[in-house]
Amino acid sequence: MFLRRFAGPLLAGVKATTGIVGLEVVPNAREVLISLYRETLKAVEPIPTTAQYRKSVEALTQHRLKVCTEEEDWEKIEEKIQGGQVEELIVQAQDELQLIPKMAEWKPWEVPEDYKVEIIEDDDSVPSHIPIHRPRL
């Protein structure tokens, strides 16, 4: 009785399960996310500032970090980010951290010097298997 009366309100905001098989509840998810987002922003620094990949990662991560630093309640974090449960956000951040070094190695923003772009001047030279998109009038 004592526990229910005093601990009940404290435990009301604690998540019992994620409802996703294999994805355990992270009681300190907010702190974990803040740490992962800061690590992500540091990890993406070697990528050129002109690369769209870096721009996208930084924008998304800065937005999510801002939400996590402004909100303490995991439900509000989930609601504002709209990217799933906080545990799913943790998995996403960990995945991004694994991808960053690979992207730095692959350098998809660089175009090889010998790369040639075929410029198609008119519809007659477009191969038949390529759809032609025209604006609606």
What does this structure look like?
The protein is mainly alpha-helical and 137 residues long. The chain has a domain at 22-106. It has helices spanning 2-11, 29-43, 52-70, 74-81, 86-106. The N and C termini lie far apart (72 Å). InterPro entries: NDUFA5. It comes from Sphagnum jensenii. Keywords: Electron transport, Membrane, Mitochondrion, Mitochondrion inner membrane, Respiratory chain, Transport.
Average pLDDT works out at: 89
| Series of secondary-structure elements, N-terminal to C-terminal | HHHHH
Structural class: mainly alpha
Main sheet characteristics: none
Strand content: under 5%
Structure annotation, total helices: 5
Helical content band: 40-55%
Uncertain runs: none
Shape: elongated
Strand segment tally:
0
Radius of gyration: 23 Å
How far apart are the first and last residues' alpha carbons, in Å?
72 Å
